[in-house]
Amino acid sequence: MRLQELSLTNFKNIPSARLELSGKVNCFLGDNGMGKSNLLDAVYFLSFCKSFTGVPDRMAITRGEEFAILKGTYERKEMPEELLMGIAAGRRKSLRRGGKEYPRLSSHIGAFPLVMVAPQDIDLIRDSGEERRKWLDMVISQSDPLYLDSLIRYNKGLEQRNRLLREGCVDHQLYGAVETMMELSAEYIHDARKRRVDELTVLFRRHYASIAGTGEEVSLTYDSHLNEPGATMLSLFDSARRRDEILHHTSVGPHRDDIVMWLDGMPMRRTASQGQCKSFTTALRFAQYDFLREATGMRPLLLLDDIFDKLDAGRVGRIMELVSSSDGFGQIFITDTNRKHLDEIMARTGGDVRMWHVEAGNFSPI
Predict the structure, then answer these.
(1) In a 3-state reduction of DSSP, which class is residue 15?
(2) In this predicted model, what pLDDT tens digit does every residue of 307-360 receive, in sequence order?
(3) What is the pTM of this model?
(4) Measured between alpha carbons, how far is 38 from 52 in angstroms, rounded to an integer?
(5) Strand 2-11 to strand 301-305: parallel, antiparallel, or no bridges (unpaired)?
(6) 150, 185 Cβ separation under 8 angstroms
(7) Which DSSP category does 250 fall into?
(8) How many whole angstroms separate alpha carbon 97 and alpha carbon 224?
(9) What is the per-residue pLDDT across 202-247, written as a single tens digit (0 to 9) for each?
């Protein structure tokens, strides 16, 4: 899959842009705050119908304007495709594919697979389990529509159960109806997460070794209440019922799961340096790329935002080698403030590479 042309109107600090893109490597050079990351976020928006940064839709519209328009022309499975997204203040955003509007935006997820590596990835290590669950949910949802449906149903049930707890409900039949619905979804979510973490770990270890170039041992483990022998959601609800009534929220279930990240047998969040954290999250994203390529039968778009920051020369060189290899990735988008890195990638790749200078939301071909 490749994005052939991208057109933006009133998106963040980009008033207007139209870029014809390389099928291999696209480089964006400029100082911080000029719009490089915003352009990558626009590409992300077209795949996931939301910002990578998690900001509300209204903040995707240029200040002082009432709407934003994003248009992408793709080649997907050797067929032309067009996506058109409209974002208007105070209104539900819309997405059209081939001129036909999606009735549910969630049904678009996974159709145009994408992986983004960004400075915010440090949150996967430093922040709470919620960040890691969101990451894993996004990976699996791109390859398994049933998983996304199960996740939506489970979260609806969770909202209903929490409301009953807040209201002090004592009707066991009401709880039973909600919890039975949640159990079916929870089993699918747990099984899919456990299986996918095992698969990702194999890919992740290989990429980390390629980037770090050391004997460091890394791993991922899936931490869940449902990992306990014989555990079911109904048994967990029963054992936690009194505690949940006191807390007024549901304390057990997939929404409390975590992915524990290890470096040489120690938790990453406690022991790793900045360079190790950057290598770790980059390897994690590259593993995500390999997984999606296999699961979807397409090469996802790969977005690399300021990827070389906080890395030593050795790790930078090894990432460049991975990115430049002809059989590794498909279409790549890279931002940097340092032209030296981009020139070296262009020299290694040769051929189909394009570069733009970015200033105040304007893109000038170099």
Answers:
(1) strand
(2) 888 788 788 888 888 887 766 789 999 999 988 888 887 787 766 889 999 999
(3) 0.91
(4) 10
(5) unpaired
(6) yes
(7) -
(8) 38
(9) 999 999 999 988 788 999 999 999 999 999 999 999 999 999 999 9
- Is 57:91 a contact under the CB 8 Å cutoff? no
CA-nearest of 345, 293, 296 to 322 is 345
DSSP letter for 59, please.
Answer: G
d(C-alpha 268, C-alpha 158), whole Å? 30
Any bridge partners for residue 11, and if so which?
A: 14, 61
Residue 253 and residue 172: Cα distance in Å, rounded? Answer: 19
- Nearest-Å Rg of the Cα atoms of the chain is 22
Task: Report the C-alpha gap between 189 and 196 in whole angstroms.
Answer: 11
Q: Token digits for 341? A: 């890195």
Structure tokens at 323: 């990115």
Task: State which H helix or E strand residue 101 sits in.
Answer: strand 100-101
3-state secondary structure of 52: coil
Closest CA to 31 of 360, 363, 365: 360
Supply the DSSP symbol for 61: B
Helix ranges (H only) for the chain are 36-48, 123-126, 129-141, 145-166, 172-212, 233-247, 268-271, 274-296, 313-324, 339-349
Distance CA 165, CA 211 (A): 48
For the chain, how many residues are written? 366
| Cα dihedral 259→263→267→271 (10° resolution) | -140
* Nearest in space to 138 (alpha carbons), one of 116, 122, 154: 116
Q: Which of 215, 206, 220 is nearest to 322 (CA)?
A: 206
Task: Output the CA–CA distances (angstroms, integers) from residue 187 to 41, 201, 209, 225, in the order listed.
Answer: 33, 21, 34, 11
Distance of CA 217 to the CA centre of its chain: 24
pLDDT in tens, 271-315: 888 888 999 999 999 999 999 999 999 999 999 999 888 788 788
Encoded tokens for 291:
């997984």
Sign of the CA dihedral with 38 first, then 42, 43, and 48 last: positive
Q: Helix or strand or coil: residue 45?
A: helix
